[in-house]
Design goal:
2 copies of one chain form a homodimer. By secondary structure, the first copy, chain A, is an alpha/beta fold. Chain A has helices spanning 49-54, 64-69, 73-78, 82-86, 98-103, 136-146, 163-183, 201-213, 230-240, 258-266, 276-282, 314-318, 321-329, 334-360, 363-370, and strands at residues 9-15, 18-25, 28-32, 34-36, 60-62, 92-94, 114-116, 121-124, 131-134, 150-152, 190-195, 219-221, 250-252, 271-273, 285-287, 292-294. The N and C termini of chain A lie far apart (41 Å).
Chain lengths: 372, 372
């Protein structure tokens, strides 16, 4: 059995701020840094769980907002929880649903689909328009029903560069974090706090101090990758992450590109998630270590080479660029599957390379080469 | 290496008309009776080649009409042929495209999209409306470019119950079969003749006599499963199949349901293909040994059982009816993949069971149980 206790974070090596570690969950030990594919509706789109395993995924994220609305968290609990429901036996993570709910505002340019108050947030389903309400206690209840290994507190996402808004939102985020912590009872699930505060160092520091006082088993950096510049994101990480406890995992939510992974790791991040690799796959895009290919492009129509000559994924080992392009043009579902396999494999390979480099003490060099 | 020479058909056992055999192709030996999944556009929809292998597929069909139009047979030849193009290293079969071209008539209720004469058929692409022409020689050229292990002659498909039409069509079908045979030069590809004649025993007999005179390495029964009754289909098989040479494989094109397989085998058929299992999968239907489930049905919403308790496929081993239904309702691509896996696995299991029963001398009993 594992040496580590549940939710222990073992730090194996550091190089500058970069860390290689192990986070122990009820469904296995996660080797960090780690990238989690996103399975919004209890499926990583166009992939089977076998495909996820084959590309080296270990942690999978699912969206509380979507699963609460359909098929419902109580149904999933009744069916044995999210792992059993979607056939994924490894570690899982659920967000709080807050980000999706706050994103509902103004989506239609007409009446807002959500209304926030100090107690929680009322919103209308994007599926049928019916009204629902999330409070910190309700979200914890839903996430406990879903039963992921890592759950997130409900927080308020503010525009990153509006100071006054962030001050108000932070007060709510902190009160909600405390209420989530009190409501949370599931011993096999780690509830992570979420540091907010936009691009403002004083607010980020205030947020870290408040949340670490609540002693969560892990901390996320929220409110980034939502419109701020890369420079602002990096500066925010640089002033926030070093304040976090060393022996707890740090999770940068919703980030990002291959380069974002390397730069986030360089600033002390352990966990990432992002829909990008699978979303762009469904648009016919193949991720490369630097940049990407639009596989719909006519120049690939007779190209016998794989997407990436150096890639060891199922797609690159078996299919040509010409075939992938044919599938896209012919509107075949297999295009999304093969590109999702390649894109996730690319992300997961890069993050494994980062970990190996940190363990070998060569991460600075790796990062330098990556920046090309 | 294989004992059999290329295109040898070894008859291992018979029980009544039912046969168990081995057909030797350039990409391996096919254990007959066999069912071929349909990969219209060089992909069995929603499946990877790995999935096909996992469900036990050995022969895969692709459609000449579709691949000729897009991406084009010369491009596929240039990329190493159909096997390399789609990543399938086992035996493959291409139809002649005739059935698709003849199906273009009247699809729009306006001007016919195809015009037939004694030399060939002129038609308009369903993709862009451009005019194309198939002759027996052109179809053979295209199929040789595609490079499947089994290719089919160009034939004319007539309404099964119109005697006068069938007489005229048969003359063309025979002349075209002869021209295909002359045009065909690829030594690693078996060109099969197609017996036509609708539901009329005299025409079927005439067709068998003509085509066997040309000595093809295998024979298909065409023009069935196109509107005639099951009784008519069975009667036609009963008067046609016994006239065919014993040591050549017999292929019933476009058939069918699990029951159709068993009943076809009982009448001496060795090879089947049908889009049904994958097409109904994309409509949310799960095939059972008898009948099927509409997995969209609300009664499955909280059902923790697999589609079929006795099934050993990836889908039934890992996922509940409730999950499959959720995927369908949530419009997730994985629904089509998981149902295609189950449906193909079901078809291929049934046909393997038929083969084992013939080898054991228990096929009559198996067939009786199957009819329930």
């Amino acid at each position: 059995m594992m040496a580590g206790m549940l939710f222990d974070f073992e730090l194996l090596a550091t190089e500058g701020e970069a860390r290689a570690g192990i986070f122990h969950t009820a469904h296995g030990a996660l080797q960090t840094p780690i990238y989690a594919p996103v399975g919004t509706q209890a499926t990583v789109k166009a992939m089977t769980p076998q495909h996820l395993q084959d590309v080296g995924a270990t942690l999978v994220l699912a969206n509380t907002y979507h699963l609460y609305l359909r098929p419902g968290d109580t149904l999933i609990a009744q069916l044995g929880g999210l792992h059993t429901f979607m056939g994924w036996s490894g570690p899982m993570l659920t967000d709080s649903g807050g980000f999706q709910v706050f994103s509902l505002a103004g989506q239609r340019g007409q009446k807002s689909l959500r209304k926030i108050d100090d107690d929680g947030v009322t919103f209308r389903s994007h599926i049928d328009g019916r009204e629902h309400r999330f409070t910190p206690e309700r979200v914890v209840e839903i996430e406990q029903n879903l039963g992921a290994d890592i759950a997130m507190v409900l927080d308020e996402c503010a525009p990153p560069d509006d100071y006054a808004y962030n001050v108000r939102a932070l007060a709510r985020t902190h009160a909600w974090a405390e209420r989530c912590k009190v409501a949370h009872t599931r011993p096999d699930q780690a509830l992570f706090g979420i540091v907010q505060g936009g691009i403002f160092p004083d607010l980020r520091e205030q947020s870290v101090r408040f949340l670490t006082g609540l002693d969560f088993p892990g901390y996320a950096i929220g409110g980034l990758s939502v419109g701020e510049t890369k420079t602002q994101m990096h500066a925010t990480l640089e002033c926030t992450v070093p304040l976090l406890p060393q022996y707890k995992p740090r999770y940068l939510m919703g980030v990002g590109t291959p380069e974002d992974l390397v730069e986030g790791i360089a600033r002390g991040i352990d966990i990432f998630d992002c829909v990008l690799p699978t979303r762009v796959a469904r648009n016919g895009q193949a991720l490369l270590r630097a940049g990407k290919f639009n596989m719909r492009n006519a120049r690939f129509s007779d190209d016998p080479a794989p997407i990436d000559e150096t890639c060891t994924c199922y797609t690159c080992q078996n299919f040509s660029r010409a075939y992938i392009r044919h599938l896209i043009i012919a509107k075949e579902m297999l295009a999304a599957t093969l590109l999702s396999i390649h894109n996730l494999h690319t992300m997961l390979t890069i993050i494994r390379e980062c970990r190996a480099a940190i363990l070998a003490g060569t991460f600075a060099e790796y990062r330098h080469c990556f920046q090309g």
